[in-house]
Amino acid sequence: MVRWLCLLLLTALPAFAQDRDAPRLELILDPRDTAPFEGEMVLATLRGTYRQSITREEVKLRPMSDFDWVRLGMDRWTDERVDGLTARVFERRIAFYPRRAGALEILPITHALQVLGANGGREDILVRSEPVTLTVQPKPSGVGDDWLPLRTLEVSDSWDVDPAQLADGQGATRRVVLRAFGATPEMMPPQPTLRQPWLISFTPPEERNFQVTPEGPVSTVVWTWKLRPVTGEPGVIPAITLPWFDTGERTARSATI
């Protein structure tokens, strides 16, 4: 009996060692308490574990019908102990945006590697992650095309002169800055039109900037209006309300300028 057990162990050890040395790639979603809504940012880490000597690499993430995605910054390479042995670990942060509700699948991602073979030559290999299924909720009822799920929205509103002290024929420039955490520039609303019978307005092109952090993208939108009253009568510019959804508190909010 002891002899048979030793034989089984000796047979299994090479297969286990070979499995430990095999390159691995996996997509790991950040933990969350509730299923995301459609359009809500979903954070993930693409993690590869390699014991080969890599001379060249490229991540291939193909277009998906159910998701938009954004790469969040530079890739990270570290040396770690995995399963008791030193390994080269690759990590890339990615934000996914589901386009619809339902049980959606994030397709496999491919890491194309060129490695040094046993004989010193170079070998091309492809490492693929497993598909990941994600349950996505429909956006809340009553929400229209202005659905904007965000982590945070900051709004600033400034004038180059006090609009209450304008002389006849004097112009003023109004500048509104939106800073949205968790959104891409394409998700942000278009610039509103300021039109009143007593007002001449000119709208320069809006500015849209985009930054990435490991916790998601940050979009900055700048709206500018050049305004001049023409009737000499006091006038009021109507407020503009920007609805958005707080994904942290899971509640609807609005910002007013």
Describe the structure.
By secondary structure, the protein is mainly beta. The protein has one helix and 18 strands. The protein has one helix at residues 2-21; strands at residues 24-29, 42-50, 54-60, 67-71, 76-82, 85-98, 102-106, 110-116, 122-128, 132-136, 149-150, 152-159, 172-181, 199-202, 207-213, 216-229, 241-246, 251-256. The strands form five sheets. Strands 1, 2, 4, 5 and 6 form a five-stranded antiparallel beta sheet that branches. Strands 12, 13, 14, 15 and 16 form a five-stranded antiparallel beta sheet that branches. A hairpin with a 2-residue loop joins strand 15 and strand 16. The longest helix has 20 residues, at 2-21. It is elongated, with a radius of gyration of 27 Å. The N and C termini lie far apart (81 Å).
Summary tags:
257 residues, elongated, five-stranded antiparallel sheet, 8% helix, mainly beta, 18 strands
Secondary structure: helix percent: under 10%
Query: Based on DSSP secondary structure assignment, what is the total number of beta strands?
Result: 18
Supply the helix-strand structural class: mainly beta
Order of helices and strands: HEEEEEEEEEEEEEEEEEE
Rg from C-alpha positions?
27 Å
Point out poorly predicted stretches: 4-13
Terminus-to-terminus distance: 81 Å
Largest sheet: 5 strands, antiparallel
| Average of per-residue pLDDT values | 89
Number of H/I helices: 1
Relative strand content: over 45%
What's the overall geometry? elongated
Topology overview:
Blueprint: H1 2-21, E1 24-29, E2 42-50, E3 54-60, E4 67-71, E5 76-82, E6 85-98, E7 102-106, E8 110-116, E9 122-128, E10 132-136, E11 149-150, E12 152-159, E13 172-181, E14 199-202, E15 207-213, E16 216-229, E17 241-246, E18 251-256
Parallel strand pairs: 11-17
Antiparallel strand pairs: 1-2, 2-6, 3-8, 4-6, 5-6, 7-10, 8-9, 12-13, 13-16, 14-16, 15-16, 17-18
